[in-house]
Amino acid sequence: MIGIFGGTFDPVHYGHLRAIIEVREIFKLDEVRLLPNKTPPHRSEPSAMPKMRLDMLRLATENLPGLVIDTRELDRDGPSYMVDTLRSLCRDFPRRPLLLFIGVDAFNGLTSWHRWTELFDHAHIVVMTRPGYSIQLQSEFFRARQVFDAAELTRHKAGKLLFRPITELDISASAIRKMIAEKRDPRFLLPDAVLDYIHSHHLYQKV
Prior knowledge:
By secondary structure, the chain is α/β, with parallel strands linked by helices. It contains 10 helices and 6 strands. It has helices at 14-26, 50-61, 72-75, 82-92, 104-108, 119-122, 140-143, 151-154, 173-181, 192-200; strands spanning 2-7, 31-36, 67-69, 98-103, 124-129, 161-165. Strands 3-2-1-4-5-6 form a 6-stranded parallel β-sheet, with helices on both faces.
């Protein structure tokens, strides 16, 4: 199985990296493909340019096995719609199930995503939750697809929904950007190589 982990990575931080490493181990994934957005349709434009976000992601993951940076959203014109990305990945990996990992906030807004029901035609969706976190599914669409055992994902090509607690680090890219703008020190929230890149390129600083 292949894991799919998208985001703006503006900048990439240890919250991203811990989650990625953990789900790769939990689900025994062949690889996790990291897909930086170019133009995210559900949030404001990223602060850093696409090339710089890509550079930082490469610096953060260069010594982590099993992680593949996939630039298809950066290379594609227009908004970064996940349904288009999954369709493209299915063409590249027709025999391997895809697991799309999203957070609780993203799941709560999933019905606003472009052609969101079609996501399940191409992948399973795994919602990363905090330990002890519970979600009440109000939609029959979701209840019909929910499974409670990760082994179920290996028995189907796509279409299932699983909630999985993972270790949550209370780190956000927006908080890191704010700290840098306020000339505070964000060390130990993100890799040193990424922080050095931010400083050398004067990213996230107030004009």
